[in-house]
User: Fold this.
Amino acid sequence: MAQFPLGVAVVGTGFGQKIHIPGFQEHPRTQVMAVYHRDAETARAIATAHNIPYACQRLEEILALPEVKAVSITTPPFLHYEMAKAVLQAGKHLLLEKPTTLTAREAAELYQLATQQGVAALMDFEFRYVPAWQRFAELLAEGFVGQKRLINVDWLVSGRADPSRPWNWYSRKDQGGGALGALGSHTFDYISWLFGPVQRLCGYLSTGIATRPAPEGGTKPVDSDDTCSLMLELADGTPCQVVLSAATYQGRGHWVEVYGDRGTLVLGSDHQKDYVHGFRLWASQAGEPLTEVEIPQRLEFPKTYADGRLAPFIRIVDRLVESIERGESLTPSLREGLYSQLLMDLTHQSNETGTWVNVPSLETFLRQA
Assistant:
């Protein structure tokens, strides 16, 4: 049986410092015991700043600590597979940032390894735990819109719109960079959660900013996408269109619209700086005007923070703790991470071939992997 507070190590200190470290420290049943950074001096400085007992510059050091029972990985995606594999092989529980890996085959191997090891392995798909999204899901499950006719998703933000923003791993397709990995990984997860599996898809990826300033001077080419357009046919036949972009000045933000034969639901936020704060929900039936839906108190966060991502992350930590106690990986697990990664792989395939691509069931893919 696991002992609590649960000793956790945080691997990766960008998003890790902003969300994972404070989230685990805020949670009453977890304690951050170690932090990893490839530079030893930086690791020590971060550990000191956050009162973390161990500072490590090698993953092996973290995995050797008996106090560490779970590891969260917040490094860039090209490091996820090897790091997560080492964590799982060491018998540690895992919390993994999106996108899951670089390929669905890597994600499938991690999912199967976590199952074999009998450890909890979860993904940080935090939209599932945002109050307005949860009420949206409830209304959909209640049949508020009736037979769905069209789903439309727009996620248009300006995070990469400035061409003077420096070149880094995000600019490289082979390292998991791009809007599809950053935004599409979430989008594919919540489409599956809210609407069910995808039957086939057609994707188009584009790069509007072809070069960026290199850290060493001059410029470097960008081969990752900053905009992605998708057409999906869901398993129930519903058409779904998706436009994602990280390069839209004054983009409309993040919106999910569902149109049915009985009603309409619109969930959205025009917030450009924080992708969790600001979501509101509107509803209409029988052709009446849209009216805003009040979010029930039972769904609201007990506490909110300046950074909107922190409150839903703490709910993900709740799921990790519950998973460990129950001895099974609860959603959103590596299984959900694998499905998101599979849809991203097929989007790349569709973009390269210029064709619609059929989406196998997860069971079929796992048999073939």
Q: What stands out?
A: The mean pLDDT is 97. The first helix runs from residue 15 to 26. The two ends are 33 Å apart (CA to CA). The chain is about 35% helix and 25% strand.
